């Protein structure tokens, strides 16, 4: 092969990358310390809220993979979230599975559902794609309501938590809040790491090429349909993992979490946080859920403020909060970059 495979970053770009990576590392360190740090300053209730934020941010990550990197706006990710949730609940309550088999069963059925529905959905684009994802979500939402012996119908399906590990007479399970938090944190962190690997792989670069211009991507030999379907299935897997975690978190599964308004919230979290960025969905979900928890105690119409934040973000920060932070870091590094350019001179 001739020449380097990747363009070399200039010093200013490297500084920006280092600062952004440092901010991301601080966020991860904070989340890792939550069970011990938050109770020192506020109500331990916020540890559970943070665990819930991590779960919902994983659903927003699945939306981000489709919308932010593949260019497909899905309002149906709640369907795969619901399949992951019901997979765990039915696995434990109806099939008598243990913790890990039920967890795997929840992920498996959500991936299978994403493969079947995605085979049809990714043939469409733009609003046609968005509509068919909503239709799939509605079909299985009403099916879940009518199949009461299996899903519990309107009442949902509760279950008792199985044990994660057993060492002799010692049992470890999610009934311990700290174990529960770290199980959720490690699972979500592993998914984000997998997402990072995917985005840096040739597959991830092909998705970005399709997002930018699918016609040109096809002309250079990328199988657009296969890439979109693979992206849809991986996004369904992330949503299914989030649903399985939420089932263990709440010891419950309900059809209401399969409704399309849940998908809409995930889209909002991804856009506000920064679609097309790795940690943007985590930031968006965290910000809006904290606002919801705080304001809902004092103001019934708190959704008005959430709507205003979304509108202002779309108008003044189209790259979301993460994009805003990255732009700010680039401005800080900018003068030094210009000075380096002047030092190198026009010949370079």
Folded structure, characterized:
With 348 residues, the protein is mainly alpha-helical. Helices cover 74% and strands 3% of the residues. The chain contains 14 helices and four strands. The strands form two sheets. A two-stranded antiparallel sheet has the order 1-4. Helix 8 packs across helix 10. The mean pLDDT is 85.
Layout of strands and helices, then pairs:
Layout: H1 11-41, H2 45-70, H3 77-93, H4 99-121, H5 126-146, H6 148-151, E1 157-158, E2 165-167, E3 170-172, H7 177-200, H8 202-212, H9 214-219, H10 224-250, E4 252-253, H11 260-273, H12 280-295, H13 303-316, H14 320-344
Antiparallel strand pairs: 1-4, 2-3
User: Roughly what is the average pLDDT, rounded to an integer?
Assistant: 85
Our estimate of the beta-strand percent is under 5%
Sheet with most strands: 2 strands, antiparallel
Percent helix = over 70%
The DSSP helix count reads 14
Number of strands: 4
* Coarse structural class: mainly alpha
Strand order of the largest sheet: 1-4
**Uncertain segments:** none
Radius of gyration: 22 Å
Bulk shape: globular
End-to-end Cα distance, whole Å, is: 25 Å
The topology string of helices and strands comes to HHHHHHEEEHHHHEHHHH
Key traits:
348 residues, mainly alpha, two-stranded antiparallel sheet, 14 helices, globular
Outline of this structure?
The chain is an all-alpha fold and 348 residues long.
